[in-house]
Amino acid sequence: xxxxxxxxxxxxxxxxxxxxxxxxxxxxxxxxxxxxxxxxxxxxxxxxxxxxxxxxxxxxxxxxxxxxxxxxxxxxxxxxxxxxxxxxxxxxxxxxxxxxxxxxxxxxxxxxxxxxxxxxxxxxxxxxxxxxxxxxxxxxxxxxxxxxxxxxxxxxxxxxxxxxxxxxxxxxxxxxxxxxxxxxxxxxxxxxxxxxxxxxxxx
Amino acid sequence: xxxxxxxxxxxxxxxxxxxxxxxxxxxxxxxxxxxxxxxxxxxxxxxxxxxxxxxxxxxxxxxxxxxxxxxxxxxxxxxxxxxxxxxxxxxxxxxxxxxxxxxxxxxxxxxxxxxxxxxxxxxxxxxxxxxxxxxxxxxxxxxxxxxxxxxxxxxxxxxxxxxxxxxxxxxxxxxxxxxxxxxxxxxxxxxxxxxxxxxxxxxxxxxxxxxxxxxxxxxxxxxxxxxxxxxxxxxxxxxxxxxxxxxxxxxxxxxxxxxxxxxxxxxxxxxxxxxxxxxxxxxxxxxxxxxxxxxxxxxxxxxxxxxxxxxxxxxxxxxxxxxxxxxxx
Lengths: 203, 329
Hints:
The complex is a heterodimer.
Chain A: H1 2-18, E1 21-24, E2 34-38, H2 44-52, H3 55-58, E3 61-66, H4 67-70, H5 74-83, E4 87-89, H6 101-108, E5 112-115, H7 133-140, E6 145-152, H8 154-157, E7 171-174, H9 186-199
Parallel strand pairs in A: 1-7, 2-5, 2-6, 3-4, 3-5
Antiparallel strand pairs in A: 6-7
Chain B: H1 2-6, H2 10-37, H3 43-76, H4 78-98, H5 107-126, H6 130-151, H7 158-181, H8 194-219, H9 234-250, H10 259-287, H11 305-327
């Protein structure tokens, strides 16, 4: 109940602050298993892309969040589990467990996921090089559709380190689905995926 | 018309006006609908007609929304009206600042503008602090916001960034807040009918703009400043002003004035509004966009919100302060 209210509140808030426009440029919103990957500049990114999805897709689309940061306080933990139902991944490599294991589980369950392959929030307009996670997922789940997305302007809403957001019109542009080519190398694929995200900036 | 309107009671006036306005809108919408289903023979003409109708449809829809907003604020009192205009300010400032990109150092001043200056300005209007609300932004905010930006320690394009923010606040908050401020002016012998004054201002300005729009389409005169606006020319400007002012004179019955004075005030509002709209066009060209709203396509689906209200933002302060100065209230 509280989580439902919170999600309604956040949806309303993001709409008032950003207009939350979704632009489906390369593909329509569709109930198939997908990995959305996007640039990452602000905490609002997650809410933004989540609000841009149609309601019936929201419940089966789960975002990835860093375990150390998002389980630090009880509120953060509640927000990410009860409201967003995120998948936690740990950023430290101390354990033997594959950090992508939780993602494999989610994908095997049939969930779609939202991934920010840069790993952390960037400061500049240009996205940082992508981490290998996207490649590993694409390799292991070739049937899942990979959809690039560009989140525009959100860094102005809530820059890293600020608490009060300001209203700025933002949009999420979804591009044409891409696929891992036969025998494509990791570096080449990640570079291509990054280029696909950046290309959406100007459409 | 004048005596007819003047002798009605306030409630009857409201009723009569809404019947007239909603009636006109209904007729216009019905005509557009009938034209849109009519067969136009060859394809090329049909295509042209379709485009024309689409733009008319946008204007009509904006007018419908405006009138509905007024009606709501009317039946529910001053504070609701203030909140509604506050929201319009908020959303148009959002549009304005989206297209004037800021740097990270501006974050604090933007927060102040949206969540400090805007509510304070509307509160000052609502509580009737007239002298304060007229100077609050030009005097106090003018110092406070650049200070917040300067403390962020980022000198790059400092003047430009602050000028943009200042302009956005002047147009979207200061200008817009003068529309509901009309609700609180007290003219002698004009008891509690100030909502009519707001209605009067909005209606004459909107009629002036629409007339000017159609006149420039029909006349095809050479534009005055083609780099700024392809459609702005003096002849259609005059036509717009004349029609707007005449409607103002006709509506004198709902104002505290005789027809001559109402004509003069409508004239002032129309001149300020249409020229303000032209100035905003220059700003849009500077940003390289056809209209406000996100990335060329807007939130409303037909031009941005600011495109619809910018004339009002310029007309309202001029109208308000002329009336206050002239009648010494």
